[in-house]
Amino acid sequence: MSDESAPIAVVTGAAGGIGRAVTAALTRAGHRVVGVDVEPVGDPAAYASLVADVAVPEQVEQLFARIHERYGQPTVLVNNAGVYHARAFLDYDPKTYAQVLDVNLGAVFFCTQAFARSLVAAGRPGTVVNVASISGQSGSPDAAYGASKGGCIALTRSLGRALAEHRIRVNAVAPGLVETPMAARIPVERRDDYRARIPVGRFGTPAEVAAAVAWLADPASSYVTATILDVNGGLH
């Protein structure tokens, strides 16, 4: 399959550890990956890189218009952009709380909306994979982060059902502890406690999360939608 005929996948938060791993996995699977981040991606595995703040709905609309104009119709969207502050509940201020919800949940909503609208207009099927978190299932010491990821999980289940009639599948992966710069913000004593409770005895890798994302983006998972796939080493 030539580059120009390969399907297009959009990955947000593409400059981060999981984002780069997802870009590499989807590229190996034959996609042209358009990486999106608030800073230049600079990833040689990406087919193209664009800068946008996906927490701003107006920028999301402009982003997908740009992608369609320059590269064509994307058929895979990976909502990976996220922020984590490791902040105690009593220390949160309204601005930081709003940022966490806007990036971790609002961006998922509006990126999926823009993507789905373009697919419906083109009469084409597509796939959305959201990157949630075990924190959205069991809670988190960072309450705003846990709430945002819990919302992502609920949104995934809702959109998986709502968009099925348009042949658009929506699923999510829920990683546990993964060795990324974001996870490095977790205090050392809490990291040690988590590691001791993980049945496989270690943190995950970005490549392991990316492999799950790539499977959900692949036609091999064509009967899977509105589903959350745990990638957590057995931690619950």
Automatic annotation (TrEMBL):
Pfam family for this entry, one: adh_short_C2
Keyword hit for Transmembrane helix: no
Single GO term (MF): oxidoreductase activity, acting on the CH-OH group of donors, NAD or NADP as acceptor
Gene3D superfamilies: NAD(P)-binding Rossmann-like Domain (3.40.50.720)
Keywords: Oxidoreductase
PANTHER family: 3-OXOACYL-[ACYL-CARRIER-PROTEIN] REDUCTASE, SHORT-CHAIN DEHYDROGENASES/REDUCTASES FAMILY MEMBER
Family statement drawn from the similarity comment of this UniProt entry: Belongs to the short-chain dehydrogenases/reductases (SDR) family.
Name of the featured protein: SDR family oxidoreductase
Organism: Micromonospora orduensis
